[in-house]
Amino acid sequence: MKIHHLSPEEALDSLGSSMNGLADAAIEGRLHEFGFNRIEESKKTSALLLFAQEFLHFFALILWLAAGLAFFAESRQPGEGMATLGYAVLGVIAINGCFSFWQRHQAEQAIAALQKLLPHQVKVIRDGELSLVFADELVPGDLLVLQEGDNVPADCRLLEAFNLRVNNATITGESLPKGRDAQVSDVEDISQSRNILLAGTSVVAGEGKALVFATGMHTEFGKIAHTLKTTVKGQSPLQLQISRLSRFVALLALLLGVVFFFIGQIIGLTFWENFMFAIGIIVANVPEGLLPTVTLSLAMATQRMAKRNALIRNLPSVETLGSTTVICTDKTGTLTQNRMAVKQLFLDNQYWQPEQLGSDSLQHHTAFLANAALCHSLKHVEGKGLLGDPMEVALVSMAHEQGMRIDYPKIGEVPFDTDRKRLSTIHNTPQGKMLFCKGALEMVLPLCRHIVMHGNVEPLGDAGRQQLVNALKTLADQGLRVLAFAYRPLSDPVEAEPEQALIFSGLVGLEDPPRPEVADAIAQCHIAGIKVIMITGDHPHTAVAIARQIDLVKTENPKVITGDRLKKLTGSQLQVALDAPEIIFARVGADQKMLIVDALQRKKHVVAVTGDGVNDAPALKKADIGIAMGKAGTDVAKEAADMILLDDNFASIVAAIEEGRAVFDNIRKFLTYILSSNIPELIPYLAFVLCKIPLPLTIIQILAVDLGTDMLPALGLGVEKPDASAMNKAPRSYKETLIDWRLLARAYGFLGLLEALAAMAAFFFVLHRGGWDYGEILSNHHPLYLQATTACLTAIIMMQIANVFICKQRQRGLLATSILDNKLILSGIALEIALILTIVYTPWGNALFGTAPIDIKVWLFTLPFVLGMLLLEEFRKWLVRRFTLFPVLVKPLKLRKRLLSRH
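That's the Cation-transporting P-type ATPase sequence above. Prediction below.
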């Protein structure tokens, strides 16, 4: 038999213990057999290995290869600037590796948070004596002494209990304190047994003695920890995209290198000339600035989200939010205000608003109001009022508003638990001893024989009982949590079973009102194609009623699945059920969230899940984006989550999703911008080798673009604000990639070619003005060559200045875009201009970058190319809008107006 099915004496005997506790001689043997009472940590990878891993992922390997090839090329042909390129690439690798390692180190602390919840020292009876021992030295068979305020250090079976109540929220998610006693229990689930205390919970009232039967990883607490540390979180969508992008970049660079190696063979170059040519092509096609730009863009997005009450714990989660297709959300505190208030009363067979109770009716409902005014676990804090359970705060506040302020001494209690679903307290009153009972109607009503009607106590017949049941349904259908109140005078001495022949005094409907901004947030989710699923422990009627108030449910018969039904569903049945357009999970335990998350992920959804308790942690870690509550959340939930909601508000999730969507679009913007400059960097090198002309652009000048002038404008594109239409379209498909043929065609085949044309034209313009003839050899230090290569570099930077405004919008025209709203882009352009002027017109800039001053005619020569690129891109965008954009946007915009007009 399980220990909670045994009597106290049988439980002690089963563990070889007694009411005097274990003998000291038995402790060491049990400690060796069962181990220390600790939450075991996973075998940790050494910090050194973790640090090394940040330099060995695929894109980092590409950069290592590029640096190695650069150094090899320098060894074969010194003085070409390849060593400078190699050192620059190594710097990029170092910066990204260190930053990523720091982020990763901050993100993995969940098991440590679990350990902190367990107390350090506990009171134990051993060899008949009370002593303090360290909690990790507890063993099965130990006898604990627990009092109000103590944390429970291990799973134990109560042997004695005096008005004992515990808070199980960290394990079961239940917010109300539960009564516990030493009586034999017949329930099957040990966590619901009235004689069991679980590790990680806390005693909020009373005292008792308890027998330890499970320690460490064998406790229910330990099982949650085991689930948490064995739950493997897959790569985020952005991490997968970066992996694909890395493979694409590597394949493209290698392919181009091989192709041009054979072109060199065809035109008669030697093997080593061909090999160096191929290395140059490969290195030129690796975007060295990509990783820094992605990392900094994500980091700045986290700052914007923090201002919208969403704290991101690891960078890739920023973009994951934007990919979200389903949000599984709690109700209490997230969709609602977590601020209980008495909304409606049922007294004298009629419905009342609390404010309708006046002095005339007060005398008829004295017992009812006294029951409400008796608080059991509230504390009055100066300046903050009553603090404690929101339900009790609401009841006491209602009684105080009616002038009922009492403090009857409590002399006894029949505690609340999940089986009884009611709480009875016994008090000394001016009228003598009195029992006050409140709880679920179905548990209180059978105990009642009379009812208060207009101040008189009358018999309660079948018709009256049915009327109360109907009233319960009416109140629940309004989304109210319903409590039944009853009382009875007691004789002296108090009988053994005082909960009988009660007098029914009334029903209370309590409301936890929805947050006012949630309805609009739900409407925004509908427009954005995001499905919202409520998962709550509340009654199905209450859940559906709240869902209707926030427009989460609009049909007559939404699919409602209770926790009991969920237990009976197979994985495939659950997946099919999740296809319902409106679905709510009610009376669901937090441990069942993981089943729902897993089923949604098998359906290829990107799932965001909210949670606050220890038992939510596995689901938070399993989800694509785990969202912990900042106010109500436990440390464990916060450590397991990817995002912490600072205000516990659902609307903040939707705001964060909007920011996340912008991240993906912004990464594509700066990818287009960065890749565009690869072509004007590549073509000069090709022309140098194939056409036997002076090298139009040196390696150090390429670095001046990739890691200098391009960086800040690219970062500016990475922090663009969400577009107005970002939440008017469905989530992007999981098949959609960062780089597709359209982006490549635009970056390489259109914008890049235009920039290359301008760069080569400027180069030849200067050479032609200087009297150069084709085939003439110019040294690297010849004044004409220095001016010509400076003109090429200047043209690329000028074209990139125009390109940053082009890339701000993929489809909207320049005139329809606010070009002055991004201070970082404007700062980047100012920096670009300052850098190119420094490179061109200062002696040290000339010496470092191999440049020479150019006159105003070169700048004017390049200007038509800049204007031409802007005009051609405007024409391209017009064609795109004309044939694709208009039909796509009209329908979502109309839907948005229709939904928001209802609020």
